[in-house]
Amino acid sequence: MPDSTLPNKRRRSAKPRIERAALKLFVHDGFDAATTREIANEAGVSEGALYRHYKGKDELALSLFMTIHNRLGVMLRDALASEGTIEQRIYRAVEAYCQLADEDWLLFSFHLVSLNRYLPNDTRRDDDPVSILEKIVAAMMEAGDVPKSDPAVVVSMCLGVVMQTGLSKIYNRISGPMSDHVDILSKGVLAVLMQK
């Protein structure tokens, strides 16, 4: 007698393969160049299997992007809201960012190269990473922990320190894990915050 759970197991195992195949194609070929047929072929599933999990390429890409984007917001908030000196909190935030990058470089790469596609739809949400950082930096300024300035500009500059390093890694200008660079990245972010 056939195992009645087999189709469900196949469906569940197809989704991670579809997501990995999509990430690979999105990062290496570009979102616009990748088709649902190519994603399915790369995943070793039928195109119909992809549509059982996602309405199409757009929904798949947005889901992948938001998964890491939302996680990043929580990690940064937790690192910066914890006890310690400004230096310790910045170090923990940069360390969390780098560890997330190293945990799944392909997904992280997709996040970095897709920011301009998805962030315009995600601005000024209370729980988006940039809004979280702006609130924390504004509170640091209000408390006198860092010099007063425009929190949005300062956060943009701080993010530039780590994000540009990530982009350089995508373009093979930097080798090794991002975590190898936590010390220097933390010092760069701190220099921006302290406006030195």
TrEMBL record:
List the Pfam families.
Answer: TetR_N (PF00440)
Q: Does the keyword Transmembrane apply?
A: no
- The superkingdom listed in its UniProt entry is Bacteria
Tell me the ranges covered by the HTH tetR-type domain, including all copies. 12-72
- Look up the DNA-binding region in the UniProt entry and give its residue ranges: 35-54
> InterPro entries given for it?
Homeodomain-like_sf (IPR009057), HTH-type_TetR-like_transc_reg (IPR050109), HTH_TetR (IPR001647)
> Transmembrane stretches, by residue range?
none
Give the keywords, sorted.
Answer: DNA-binding, Transcription, Transcription regulation
Q: Does the keyword rRNA processing apply?
A: no
Cleavable signal peptide: none
Q: Under which name does UniProt file this protein? A: TetR family transcriptional regulator
Record the organism.
Answer: Henriciella pelagia
